[in-house]
Structures are given as structure tokens and as C-alpha cells.
Specification:
Oligomer: single chain
Strand content: under 5%
Largest sheet: none
Structural class: mainly alpha
Radius of gyration: 19 Å
Distance between the termini: 56 Å
């Protein structure tokens, strides 16, 4: 038996997938509820602010899910951890994901952010907060691996920027090569900035 929670979750999942595949602007509420198998009025029952509220929730829930990937992709930090290798391996995993998705954007946050950064302050702000949370999480990992605080955040910012840019190039080229090339660059940045005293 379906519950109201199920309906809300289906709408959110459908919106996430549609925004990721075809963008925020090109996706309408009728298409979202049809994809979710939900009555049209239910979208506004659960999201009275309409598409903008739904878009903000997609950004925040997707952002939290991707933040959780940092803990999965990066091993427990410690004096013998190799953050450069972990970074390269994370990019390699991202390349596999991009290919498995047939070069659709794996990140709905970036898709929406590119569209609305200059036109919708609420969604821009939500995306900025999500990106900051990713940078904070990755910077904490690098810091625990022996990279000084300010440098750790600079590296984390660079790594996120490299990955998002590589996704865009990979999608347009329909190739994993840009992501794999960015893996080498990201690992080199981490290796260059790591405190010499922590090298194994």
C-alpha cells in the first residue's frame, strides 16, 4: 500500500532524474508527476512552492547524498594514507559512472546550478551551500592526511572544480578521457601540496 511519504519520495526521485537528464528549465511539473505516477495536485500538496521549492529540495537532498560518497570513496585518513592515490581512484570511479550513465550528467546539482546561477537566487544559494559542504568534507579529509588547513581547502576546491569541469567535457565528447586526465592532474595537485613530513 502506497503512503503519502511514498508519493512525496517518488516525486522527488522523478524530479531528480529529470533535472539531471534534461535540465531544470526544460522539465515541467506535469512531466514530473507523470514520471512519478502521482496525481498532479499532489506535487503542490507536498511542494506548495511549486517547481522552485522542488528544485531546491533536489539540490539539497542530492548534495547530501553526494557528500556521503566522500566517506565511501576516500579511505580512513591517517599518517600512512595516500590522499593523491585516493583522489585519482575517486576520479576513475567517476569516469566509470559517467560511462555507465551513457554520458548523462551524473550530478543534478551542477546541472541546475549552471542554468539558474544568474536567474534564481534561491536555487543558486542552495547550490552554493551544497558545493561548500562538499569542499568542507573533502578539505577535512585532506587536513587529516597532513595537509595544512588553508591548503587543504584550496586543494578540495580545485579537486571539485576539476571533477565538475571534466564531467562537462566528458559529456560533450562522450568520452571518459577528460575525467581520467583530470584524475592525473588532481592527484598531482594533492601530491605537491601534501606536507613532506607525512610522506611515506
Amino acid at each position: 500500500m502506497r503512503t503519502t511519504g511514498d508519493t512525496r519520495a517518488r516525486i522527488l526521485t522523478a524530479a531528480t532524474e529529470l533535472f539531471r537528464h534534461q535540465g531544470y528549465t526544460a522539465t515541467g511539473m506535469k512531466q514530473i508527476v507523470a514520471e512519478a505516477g502521482a496525481p498532479y495536485g499532489s506535487a503542490y500538496h507536498f511542494f506548495p512552492g511549486g517547481k522552485a521549492q522542488l528544485g531546491e529540495e533536489v539540490i539539497r537532498t542530492s548534495g547530501a547524498a553526494y557528500l556521503g560518497l566522500i566517506a565511501q570513496l576516500f579511505p580512513e585518513p591517517g599518517p600512512r594514507a595516500d590522499p593523491a592515490l585516493a583522489t585519482a581512484e575517486a576520479f576513475t570511479a567517476a569516469a566509470v559512472t559517467l560511462r555507465e550513465l551513457d554520458y548523462a550528467d551524473p550530478c543534478p546539482v551542477a546541472t541546475i546550478a549552471l542554468e539558474v546561477a544568474s536567474t534564481n537566487e534561491t536555487l543558486r544559494g542552495a547550490a552554493a551551500e551544497v558545493f561548500d559542504s562538499w569542499i568542507d568534507g573533502l578539505a577535512a579529509y585532506y587536513s587529516a592526511c597532513g595537509i595544512a588547513g588553508p591548503a587543504a581547502r584550496d586543494i578540495a576546491t580545485s579537486v571539485i572544480g576539476l571533477l565538475e569541469g571534466a564531467f562537462m567535457l566528458g559529456r560533450t565528447a562522450r568520452s571518459t578521457q577528460p575525467v581520467l586526465a583530470a584524475a592525473t592532474a588532481a592527484a598531482a595537485v594533492v601530491r605537491a601540496m601534501r606536507a613532506p613530513s607525512t610522506e611515506v
